[in-house]
Amino acid sequence: VQLQAFGGGLVQAGGSLRLSCVGSGLIFSLCTMGWYRQAPGKQRELVATISTGGTTTYVDSVKGRFSVSRDNAKNTVSLQMNSLKPEDTAVYYCYTKTPVGLTYWGDGTLVTVSS
Question: pLDDT value at position 25?
Answer without folding.
Answer: 93
